[in-house]
Write a structure and sequence with these properties.
The protein is α/β, with parallel strands linked by helices. It has 14 helices and 15 strands.
Amino acid sequence: MKAKIKASRRAMGMDYAIREVVVPAAVAAKAGKKLYNLNIGDPNKWDFETPEYFKETLREAVDNTDNGYGDSQGNLNLREAIVDREFQKHGVKITSDDVYITSGVSECINVMMATLMEPGDEILVPGPGYPSYAQYINFYEGKVVPYRQIEDENWRPDVDMIRKRITNRTKALVVINPNNPTGGVYDEKALREMGDIAAEYDLPLISDEIYDKIVFDGKFFSMSRLSEDVPRIILNGFSKVNLMPGWREGYCYFMDNNGLMDEIREGMMKQFRVRICPNVPCQEAARVSLQGPQDYIVDMNRKLKERADFSYKRLNEIPGIETKKARGALYMFPKVELTDWKTDKDFVFDLIKEEGVVLVHGSGFCKEFGQGHFRTILLPPMDTLVEAYDLLEKFMLRHQ
């Protein structure tokens, strides 16, 4: 018998916690459990709908635009719309040459890490933080260096720890604000301090701002507003605010007046040329989504705040669970008392098996700073949240 063909250790080493829980969930569903899928931040799976004028634009684009290949950097009219959007919201002055269109923010993360890192290089990431960063850092044989978000201070980033964890192998500092998975919104003081550190060490500051308009408690401060001596790559996309998750449209833009990242820009652009171009018709819909009515965002934030307030109150009523209030994004990151379980993953998998409530284990977002937590979402309607958290309470009482 011939030996099986092996996959690379890089590919086999990837482990995306948010989708990992789908496996035991499928087993529970097969056994007849009703599932409460509180694991994925997809607004369109609940009562949030892509605005009709986005859809109509896409239909027209398929019929009326050139369906051949587009610009490898992204269509110029979309890049110009992004320039206008960033100026209107943040007062940032960039040009269309600074903007790069990607297939969701995930592709941008992949391309950035491939460009920034040689094996053994280090990237500072928030702990807990969105797992794609760690996955791609590991894939390119780098080292993930988490910095703590201080739970008792509404998940404020630990700026002192950031400074202490910089070494001569540190290649970049990642910020995710509003934060996935904590729902934290960083204050301006902490963000400016992080910018000062990036400028001091000539570190690229990678700021993931995909939830920038989903803030219902506090005020969002964009890293694009830092002083000019901070080398930055700002990431954003259309999956969350614009309710287009399946359309896979994202972007990044560079702010680098001193030219420190010229080679990084070219390295990323080389990869964008190889992938040919982003989805052409969807870029037209993405452009219109920035320029048309934005009232749906007000309604979305109203719903999310109501559900965040309820989740905060209800989860803190459950024995063995404690949580800070979400201030933005789509998530909350409660702490759980692990009575009958060795790990938070065991807790999550048992909950799925016994009650059909699908959460994501906190250690999947950071082994150092996510242990003993889980991530839930704020997206489901109130009746779904009521049912799910009643089952969670029943589960916790059974295991006290």
